[in-house]
Amino acid sequence: MHSDLTLSESTDAIELQARLDSTLASVAIIGMGYVGFPLACAVERTGFSVCGFDVDADKVGALESGESYLGSGAADAFAQMSQSSHFRASHDLADIGTCDVVILCVPTPLAEDGTPDLSCVVDSTKMVAQVLRPGMLVVLESTTWPGTTREVMLPLLEAGGLKCGVDFFLAYSPERENPGDAVFETATIPKVVGGLDACSSRLACDFYRRVVCDVVPVASVETAEAAKIVENVYRCVNIALVNELKMAFEKMGIDVWEVLKASATKPFGFQAFWPGPGLGGHCIPIDPFYLSWRAQQCGAETKFIELAGRINTAMPQHVVDRTIESLGEAHQGAHVLVVGVSYKADVSDIRETPAAPIIEMLQARGVQVSYHDQHCPRFPAMKRHAIDLASVELTAERIEESDAVLIVTNHSDTDWSLIGQHASIIIDTRNAMDGTQIVGTLIKA
């Protein structure tokens, strides 16, 4: 018997613990996206058998053939996983039922009215409920409002008659992925874990200790859910602050980037955040609204967070206004070359990218738009945007033919000197041209 388990705990808990101890436990990860796939890689390295489950048959096919759909940076990992004897890809629900640990890594977007959309969590939980068996540990990793695991998942899982904490076990452990990060990856990022009960918490913590560098147990699933949202709200609020400072300092003729660099030399009491064209990715533009919604349900207010959301949401419009202003009365029919459309540097991820509303607003003002992004050959379909464009080659001729170059994403492998030498107007939202010789007009927006 594992030393962490007491004699009062169920036979199912003891047997699951033994399978974890011997690395005989099998793990199903539902959702093979930017969170689920890296987690599958980390779990596979421990020696556990891993089933990468996705309802998208095309993704399953790509996993089996080793073809990356998460950008070139993940190509080696896809190739390695396709050859691993410890990994299999599947869209067959029966495969989930054979596993001991089931982890949900599914999207939690916003609905059209700005409220949380938990449809993927609900649908995935219902799938698990169909194959739930005694001795199974279920963990949610998707970012969500505090209370989701207990109030939404638990009733669905217990509807079949099995009891949490006795027959099966349920926990929450938020994902902390940072796509494109060359320093921190799944296994080197500490994991916060909260269980529905003491046994669920211990089993989940013991599983993750075998996968990541450190585990941080917390008192409840609600604490773990809240911790994840706080991490992203912290970033959202601070980014809103520097975005507001940028617009204020523009009016004063002060370079906000130089101000922030100077402030960052203080060795204590200050952490630098950087302005930009708007928030992107699946976390920071969305998670604060999950917390605001939950707070309202509980009769609380989150005025500060809501203000930060409004500031960040307004940034694409600010960028468009500055671009139109730079083009002057000739903006109708002018051509703007957008450089970078992914939501952050050196990734192909376009989720919630500010490039989408920027491009659409420019087109609505009569501007002809093309874009260059070596990581996004074609602008993919998006839920709220319809942009039919493909990446163009970045050449001197292309730059010179454009009335302005608008930098939205600062990929490290972009030829900034080429832009500096040939662009007549550069609107730089990322301070990407800092230190580059520029022959035309530079506008920091």
List keywords for this structure.
Rossmann fold, 445 residues, elongated, alpha/beta, 2 domains
Write the layout of secondary structure elements.
Layout: H1 11-21, E1 26-30, H2 36-45, E2 49-53, H3 57-65, H4 75-83, E3 87-90, H5 93-97, E4 101-104, H6 119-131, E5 137-140, H7 148-158, E6 169-172, E7 191-195, H8 198-209, E8 215-217, H9 221-252, H10 256-263, H11 287-297, H12 303-327, E9 335-339, H13 355-364, E10 368-372, H14 396-401, E11 404-407, H15 416-422, E12 425-428, E13 441-444
Parallel strand pairs: 1-2, 1-4, 2-3, 4-5, 5-6, 7-8, 9-10, 9-11, 11-12, 12-13
Antiparallel strand pairs: 6-7
Helix pairs in contact: 1-8, 3-4, 6-7, 9-11, 9-12, 12-13
Write a structural description.
The chain is 40% helix and 13% strand. By secondary structure, the chain is α/β, with parallel strands linked by helices. It has two domains: 11-219, 3-Layer(aba) Sandwich (Rossmann fold); 235-444, NAD(P)-binding Rossmann-like Domain (Rossmann fold). The strands form two sheets. It has an eight-stranded mixed beta sheet with strand order 3-2-1-4-5-6-7-8, sandwiched between helices. It has a five-stranded parallel beta sheet with strand order 10-9-11-12-13. Helix 8 links the parallel strand 7 (191-195) and strand 8 (215-217). Helix 3 crosses helix 4 (75-83), helix 6 (119-131) runs parallel beside helix 7 and helix 9 crosses helix 11 (287-297). The longest helix is centred in the middle third of the chain and has 32 residues, at 221-252.
